[in-house]
Amino acid sequence: MTTRMLGAPVLRTEDPRLLRGEGRYLDDLGQGAYEVAIVRSPHAHARVLDIDVTGALDVDGVVAVYTYEDLPPRLRERLPVLIPHPALTAARTQHVLAAGEVNHVGEAVAMVVARDRYLAEDAANRIHVAYEPLPAVVGHERAASGQLLVHDDIPGNLAATLTQEIGDAPGRIAAAPNRLTFRLDIDRSASTPMETRGVHARWDADDQRLRVHSSTQTPTSVRAVVASYLELPLAQVECVAPDIGGGFGVKIVHPWPEELLVPWAARLLGHEVKFTEDRREHFISANHERGQVQFIDVGFDDDGRILGLDVRLLHDHGAYIPYGLIVPIITSTQLLGPYRITDYRVRFDSLYTNTVPVSPYRGAGRPQGCFAMERTMDRIARHLGLDRTLVRERNLIRPDEMPYDFGLTFQDGRPYAYDSGDFPASLAKLRELADWDGFPARRAAAEAAGRLLGIGMAAYVEGTGVGPYEGGHVQVETTGKVKVATGLSTQGQGHRTAFAQVVADALGVPFEDVEVVTGDTRRFAYAVGTFASRAAVMSGNAIHLAALKVREKALRIASEALEVDVEDLELVDGHVRVVGSPATSIPLGVLATMSNPLRYAFDASARIATQFASPGTTDRPPVAAGESPGLEGTDFYSPLRSTFANGMHAVEVEVDPETSDVRILRYSVVHDCGTLINPMIVEGQIMGGVAQGVGGALYEEMAYDEHGQLLNASFMDFLMPYASEVPAVAVDHLETPSPLNPLGIKGAGEAGVIPGSAALASAIEDAVGVGIDAMPLSPSRLHALRVAADHR
Ligand code: MCN
User: Fold this and answer.
1) Residue to substitute in 685, 690, 735, 741 for testing ligand 1 pocket (most ligand atoms within 8 angstroms of CB)
2) Is the CB–ligand 1 distance for residue 749 below 6 Å?
3) Which of 135, 391, 464, 782 has the fewest CB atoms in 10 Å of its CB?
C-alpha cells in the first residue's frame, strides 16, 4: 500500500542542495554580464535641476549611462498601480528614473551600465546631479496636517480615505456601560530578506527572445509588464525566478524600475545585463511596511463583551502607492480577529510621506490590526479586573456560527466571511500548551527571587489563499517519473516538497518520483504569484485537480488494455492494478507510452524504439475528439473567496528590573490552517514567522529623521533578532478543513508573524504593570516608560 502523503512530515527535498551551497541565486547568473549601478537620490524631496553624466562616460569600461531623458516614450510613463480601488482617487506611482523630482531618499535618478559593478559604481560617483531641496514630509502627523505636500497636486497628502461600517458603533459605544479610548503607534519595518532584489536579462537576437531572470515572487507578472513596457509580444519574453533567498512580500511588487531598465538595456546593447541590489540600497529603495497610528474607541458590558468598536487609522504609504490600498484594507477587516463584533466602524486615511513606499510585508497589515484588537482585549480585562483569556473567550465566534459573514468587504473585494474554525477549541488548547493556569505559581516563585515575569496572549484570523486563480500541470513520463509545474515562484516555503506530496497522494506514485518546477514561464505561463499565503490553497488545489485528470486518464487507458472496469482498478506504487489481483498491473510509465499514438516504446534494455501505431480500437482516430496525447493534465483552481486560517500565541517573558531587557522564556502557538499538507513545513513557517514577530515587537524600526533620512540603513544599525533572541516555539495544530476548496487547505505562510507584537505587549505589560501602546519596544523605550510611570 502506498503511504498517504498528505499530512506526512516529509523532510524538504529542496534543502540538501541549498545547504551544500549548490543553489543558483540571481547573482550567480550571468557571470559575463554587464553590471548596473543606480544613482539614487540623497534627498527625501527635491527638484532635479540638472544631471551631468560626462564624468561617468569618461570611465574606462563604462558602456552606457541613462537618465529619464534617454528613455523611449513607453518607459517614460509612470509604473502601474497594481491593485486599483475606487477609493484610491489620488494614486501616484514612480517613474523608472526620476522625471524632474525625487520623493524619497533612494529614488532612482540615473543608471550606469559597465563591464563590472566596480566600474559602474565608480562611474555613478562621477555623475553630478543638481538638486533643489524641498521640505520633507515625514511622519503621520505631519502628513495628515497637509501643511507641506509630497505631491504638489495632492491636497492633504491624502491618497485615499475609506470607511467601512456595520451596525451602529458610535451609538452602541455611547450607550455602553464601559468605554475606553486610546492610541497605538506602530513603527515601520521591512521584509529584509537575506537575498536582496536582483534582475538579469539576455536578449537572444537569433530567436528574437528576451529572457529575464528576476528574484521575484511574481514571474508571470514580471513577464507581462516587461513585454508591455518594452512593447514586445508576450511570446517573445520569458521570465524565470531562480533560487530565491527570501522575499517576505517585498518581491511581490512588479515591476521594480530595475526590472524594466535592465531588460531594456540588455536588448538595446545586445548584451547580458545584471543588477544586484546591495544592502544599503535595499533599505532605501525596496518597500517598507507596518507604520501606522491607530485610534481605538470601544464600548463594552460588565462581562467584557464588546458592544461597539470604532477605529481610525492613519496609514503612512510613503512616497508612492504601487500596491494600492491592500495594507490598510487588510488592517481594517482583519483587526476583528476571532471575535463577534456586530457594531464596528473603521476609517483609514492613506497618507503620502517622503519616505520609501509601502507594500505588503509578511502579515500585511494584520500585525497592526492584531495589535489593536488584542490591546483592546487586554485593556478591557484590566479595566474590569478579569482574566485576559476569559474576556477573549466571551467574545469568540462559536463554531456553530460558521460560516460567519461580518458584512464587510475584504481585500479581494469579496465578502469578509470566515469559512470555518473552532476558536474556543484553539483557546482551550493554548491555555493548556502554555500552562496559563500554572503561571501565577511560576510568577510567585520568580518574584520571591526578585525576578519580573509576565504572560500574554494574542489571537488572530488570517484571510489566505486569495484568488483569482492558480494552475498546475502534471505529466507522467514514460519512465514513470512525474513532472509537475506551477507558475508561482518559491522563496523558501518548500513548495517542491509539499506539491510533490499532493501529487503522490492523488496519483498513488512514490513521492521520490515526483519533481516539481515553480516560477518559470516557459514551464507554466499562467499564474498570479506567491503572496497572501496562497500557494498551498491555490497551486496545491490546482495541482491536485490536474493530478486527478491524469489519474482518470491512466485508469481509462489501463481499463481498455486490461479489459477491466475502471471501478475495479486502483493506483498503487506507480502502477494501475486490478483490485484484489495485484499481480495484474501496468506501470504508469507504460501507460504514458500507450497514451501517445506515436509510441516511444519503453523496453527493458532501456533502448528507445519508435513505433507508429494507433492504440486499441480501429473505430476511432488515434487522438479522439476532446482527448490529447500523453499522460498529462492541466487544471486551474479559482475560488469565489478567501479561506480563513486562525491561531493563538502565548508568550512568557522575563523583564530585567534594572535594564528593562526582555527575555522570552516560553512561546506557545496553536495554529489551524485546515488540512495540513506537511506539518513539518507548516511548523517551520510558523517558527520563521515568530522570529519576525519578535523582531517587529522588540527590535525593528526604520529610524527616519525629520528630513527623511533613514538613520539605520544597515544591518549594523537596524536590529534584527539573532538566533539567541528567537525562542524555542511549542506548536500544536487544530485542523478544521476549509469547505471552500477540494483539499480543505488554508494558508500558513504568514501566520507566525501576526500576533508577535500583540502577544509580547500583553506579556511585557503583565510583567511591568505599565501600559504598552507602541511597538517596537526596545529596552530603552520600555525603560523610559517605566521611569515615567514611577514619576507619575
Ligand atoms: N502548507 C501546508 N499545509 C497547509 C498550508 C501550507 O503544508 N495547510 C505549506 C505549503 O505547502 C507551503 C508552506 O506551507 O510549503 C506555505 O504555504 P502558504 O501558506 O500557501 O504560503 P505561500 O507558499 O503562498 O507563501 C507565501 C507566504 C508569505 S505571504 C510570505 S510573506 C512568506 C512566507 O510565505 N515569505 C517567505 N513564508 C516564507 N518563507 C520563506 N522561507 N521565505 C519567504 O520569503
Assistant:
1) 685
2) yes
3) 135
Higher per-residue pLDDT: 792 or 165: 165
pLDDT of 73 reads: 98
**All cell numbers assigned to 555:** 485508469
CATH 3.30.365.10 in the chain is located at 363-465+641-791, 467-637
Q: Which fold has domain 467-637?
A: Aldehyde Oxidoreductase; domain 4 (3.30.365)
Looking at the chain, the domain(s) classified CATH 3.90.1170.50 span 32-134+197-276
Q: How far is CA 502 from CA 515, 575, 591, 676, in A?
A: 12, 17, 21, 11
Q: Which CATH architecture has domain 363-465+641-791?
A: 2-Layer Sandwich (3.30)
Q: Return the CATH class of domain 32-134+197-276.
A: alpha beta
Confidence label for 106 from pLDDT (cuts 50, 70 and 90): very high
Q: Is 685 in the pocket of ligand 1 (CB under 6 A)?
A: yes
Annotate 280-315 with b (16+ C-beta within 10 A) or e (fewer).
ebbbbbbbbbbbbbbebbbbbeeebebbbbbbbbbb
Convert the pLDDT of each residue in 352-395 to its tens digit: 999 999 999 999 999 999 999 999 999 999 999 999 999 999 99
**Nearest alpha carbon, ligand 1 atom 30:** 248
Cα 279 from chain centroid (whole Å): 20
For 700-727, write each residue's pLDDT tens digit: 999 999 999 999 999 999 999 999 999 9
